[in-house]
Specification:
Elements lengths: L10 H26 L59 E28 L3 H10 L11 E32 L5 E11 L2 E11 L9 E3 L4 E11 H6 L3 H9 L3
Parallel strand pairs: 1-5
Antiparallel strand pairs: 1-2, 2-3, 3-4, 4-6
Helix pairs in contact: 1-4
């Protein structure tokens, strides 16, 4: 009785096997976590320091040349102040301000592309070498004086359209996480609202100018530079709307 030896997986096979095992392990952990949350409300994230979260990186922006401070003797006026009283607007790390998120987007795009090309080419052979090659070519491929004919006909037609409209109006409190050398402020705000078994999450982050903060300590989202606004959710409804993790893995690794 012959003994059949096991074949070793190639490089691609090993990578695919590792990916399947990793996806299965992550899926099992996610499944266990979901099973433990059966008939329970989705848990809220703990309040934490945004700068201590994994992946946080301080913002680095182009800075102008520093200007020396100018002091006016015997004057009650402070440079940059709007009144003689204390300015209640956010200006230091840890201060809180309100962001008015107003997002309205509408796009209508209609594209149509057509392309075609027709080409023909023939080659004849002569001499002893040509006669020898000619004998090897079937008569069905010979056309007149041309021994070999090349004909090509290519056509491409594509059509696509986009009709999208999105609107978002809400407010969120954000925290100043960093003061840049030019006094611009880096802010980040996160809000979670649980309704039944679904959590709605709103995240706002970016860079603002102190001058754009209004007297009531609010700022419009359109005045946030490098704005990052995310509005989504997690829970039972979101899980049903997503395909299973196995299908997502196959959609990524399958080449066809």
């Amino acid at each position: 009785m012959k003994r059949v030896s096991n074949r070793k997986l190639g490089g691609i096979g090993r990578i695919a096997a590792i990916g399947v095992i990793g996806a299965a392990a992550a899926g099992c952990a996610n499944t266990v976590d979901k099973i433990s949350q059966i008939n329970k409300e989705p848990y809220l994230s703990a309040i934490e320091n945004p700068t201590a979260v994994a992946g946080y990186r301080p913002v680095s922006m182009p800075m102008p040349a520093p200007e020396p401070p100018v002091f006016s003797s015997n004057s009650l006026w402070r440079s940059g102040a709007r009144a003689f009283f204390k300015d209640q607007r956010a200006k230091r790390v840890g201060d809180i301000l309100t962001v008015d998120v107003t997002f309205s987007d509408k796009a209508i795009i209609d594209n149509k592309t057509e392309r075609s090309r027709v080409s023909a080419e023939g080659r004849a052979l002569a001499g002893a070498a040509g006669n020898a090659i000619l004998d090897l070519i079937p008569d069905s491929y010979k056309s007149g004086s041309a021994v070999i004919d090349f004909d090509g006909d290519t056509s491409t037609s594509g059509e696509g359209s986009v009709d999208r409209k999105e609107e978002l109006h809400t407010t969120i409190a954000a925290v100043v996480t960093q003061v840049l050398p030019n006094n611009n402020l880096v802010i980040e705000g996160r809000q979670e609202v649980r309704v039944n078994f679904e959590i709605r999450e709103l995240i706002v982050a970016g860079v603002i100018r102190p001058e754009d903060i209004t007297a009531n300590n609010t700022i419009d989202s359109t005045k946030i530079a490098q704005a990052r606004i995310s509005y989504g959710g997690r829970g039972q409804i979101t899980d049903v709307q997503q395909p299973p993790y196995g299908q997502q893995f196959l959609d990524i690794v399958l080449p066809f």
